[in-house]
Amino acid sequence: MIDNESPYAFSISDHDNKKFEQETPVRLFHNRILFVRQGSGVLTIDDFEFSIAANQIFLMATDQILHIAAGSVISGYELNFDEFFWEKAPASASNCKSVLFDNAAVNQLLPLGTSDYQEIEPMFTALWAEEQKPDYINKADVLAAYLKIMMIKIANVTAALKEGFDGYEYQQYRQFYDLISKDFMVSHEVDYYAALLNISARKLTTLCKRYSGKGAKDLINRQLMMEAKRFLQFSSNPVKDIAYQLRFSTPEQFSHFFKKNASQSPQHYRSRLVKTDM
C-alpha cells in the first residue's frame, strides 16, 4: 500500500489519542516526521521495531516501509514533505535535512528531554495552525520556513549535524549526492559518477549504503523519480517528451521505471494530481 499524495507535497496532521486498527504497512512517498506527545504500542520501520512512548520524534525517509501495530495509540503531529517541497526551504538548512533524512535509519527514533520537548512542541503547533489557514500567496514558502527552523532544531537536539559530517569518505558521499542533483539528466549510471569521484563503482555503492542505507543506483533512481514527478505535476509536456528529457531510451522504458518505483503509471500519477486540484 502507498501513502496518500498531497497536492502541495506537504501536510501536517494533529492526532488526538488516535487508535490504530489493523493498519496495513505503507511505503512512504514522502519524508515523514512523527512527533509523539503521548503514546503506546509498537511502530515498525522497515524491519526494525520501536516502542511508542511520550516525548519522541520518529524520522522516516521516502521509500521506507512503515507499519503501526493494531491497538497502538498516538497523540501528536504527523508531518509529511517531499524533496520538491524541501527545495522551497532556504539552502542554509540543507545540511540538516541531509544528515537527518539521507541516513534516516541512524536517526529513526529521537527521545526528547524535557527542555528539548518544550522547545520543539510549540513549533509543531504553530506549523499545524499555519497549514490550517486558507490558501494565500506564498503560503508554501511560509510553511517551508517553519520546516527549516524545525529541522535545524531537531538536528541540534541529536547532534547529528556535527557527527554526520566528520570524515573524508562522508565528504565523498556528499559529493556524489550533489553530483546526481546536477547531472541526473547526463547519466543514470553509477560508473559515470564513480569516475568523477575517482573511486570504483563498488566503493561508491559501499559508501552510499553506509551513510544512507541505500545503494548508489537507488539514490540515482530516487533523484530521477523526484524530477519525473516534478515534470508530471508542473508541466503539460507529454509523457514521451518527459521520458526523453530524463534521458530514457524510450517512453516505454520510462513508464516501466516509473511504475516500478511508484506502483502506478506516469499517466495515472498525473491524472490523480489533476483530480486533487479540482
From TrEMBL:
Protein's name in the database: AraC-type DNA-binding protein
Domain of life, source organism: Bacteria
One GO MF term: DNA-binding transcription factor activity
PANTHER family recorded: ARAC-FAMILY TRANSCRIPTIONAL REGULATOR, TRANSCRIPTIONAL REGULATORY PROTEIN
Keywords: DNA-binding, Transcription, Transcription regulation
Domain HTH araC/xylS-type: 174-272
InterPro entries documented for this protein: Homeodomain-like_sf, HTH_AraC
